[in-house]
Amino acid sequence: xxxxxxxxxxxxxxxxxxxxxxxxxxxxxxxxxxxxxxxxxxxxxxxxxxxxxxxxxxxxxxxxxxxxxxxxxxxxxxxxxxxxxxxxxxxxxxxxxxxxxxxxxxxxxxxxxxxxxxxxxxxxxxxxxxxxxxxxxxxxxxxxxxxxxxxxxxxxxxxxxxxxxxxxxxxxxxxxxxxxxxxxxxxxxxxxxxxxxxxxxxxxxxxxxxxxxxxxxxxxxxxxxxxxxxxxxxxxxxxxxxxxxxxxxxxxxxxxxxxxxxxxxxxxxxxxxxxxxxxxxxxxxxxxxxxxxxxxxxxxxxxxxxxxxxxxxxxxxxxxxxxxxxxxxxxxxxxxxxxxxxxxxxxxxxxxxxxxxxxxxxxxxxxxxxxxxxxxxxxxxxxxxxxxxxxxxxxxxxxxxxxxxxxxxxxxxxxxxxxxxxxxxxxxxxxxxxxxxxxxxxxxxxxxxxxx
Length: 452
Known about the structure:
This protein is of the alpha+beta class. It has 3 domains: about 5-170; about 225-290; about 300-440, Heat Shock Protein 90 (2-Layer Sandwich). The chain is about 60% helix and about 10% strand. The strands form 3 sheets. A 5-stranded mixed sheet has the order 4-6-7-9-8. Helix 3 (about 95-115) packs antiparallel against helix 4, helix 4 (about 125-135) packs antiparallel against helix 5 (about 140-160) and helix 6 crosses helix 11 (about 410-420).
């Protein structure tokens, strides 16, 4: 029940202490709440018109039709303004509370024109109070409840000073009036119950869905921050450790040359072990520097799903253990992305699957093409993961492999790459039934061949 003077609320500015992200999330939630209020207003106006026309046509009650029509016209105008404002303005809890306070005032005016305190539709105050409890913080909810109580009380006060005759004209006797009142109570209760259940549930679901989207966006932003930190750490470590590692390698090599030929074999073995471990350290640093930067600098190119699979298997250590199944619908499907990065990500998933499966067991690589997508699924024959381990999969440096077989970065980087390309990466696992990794990317469109 919107009024025409809602523009007063449009000047509300965001709190100066709120962060930009928090302010944006709050404004989006406010706009969502206000859009639901606009929808509720339209239904309320329709209900008011139906009830007034019905009461005027089917009962002996004389209503001030001119005044009622004027109020409802103002409601329509106010709701049009409110709908436009909800799409453009920053909306705060205070704005929502102001709109609902105006709703309570309009309801009070309508009740005063159609029976006052004895109007059975005073139950509709509860709709406003229930919505306030869902949409507003506690302080605003209590304020709106107090305003509704005050509005209802004002009907008694007005009736006391103006008398009953100012409300409506009726030619019914007491029994007929009471019967009409009881029927009106039932209709009012039914309307209030329907409005409360329907709109509160829909608003709650919409808010929960929006909160889920915001949480997903926050999680994605946190992963990007971790990835940026990881890239910086990898580059810094590679730079800082390259000189001492090179020095150790040179000294170990010179020592090998300098020791007498008749020296013990253990000494030769120890020096060779030092050189091998230095080489391994360099390899680890090179992998971190190469893969931790979100494929920065690698151009995007168009590639078929078959090319993606072939590139991943090229140089893979155990290609004979991979059973490739490509759905005919996916043969011609293509995507756009960093070819080396995509091949490395898929190769990492295959390596994980082979290492998790029993010796000589086959792992499955399945390529399908859902509408508008390319989906690659890698299934292993391992023991699966417990819910606790599954919940942590993809965290940086978390791994269940034995030392030396992985750093716990592969799945984290794979998920980051999928999100960067507008896709998804998910893992499902059941203890005793293996693990399934699903990498899904959008199909490329014509002309989409290079990185932006």
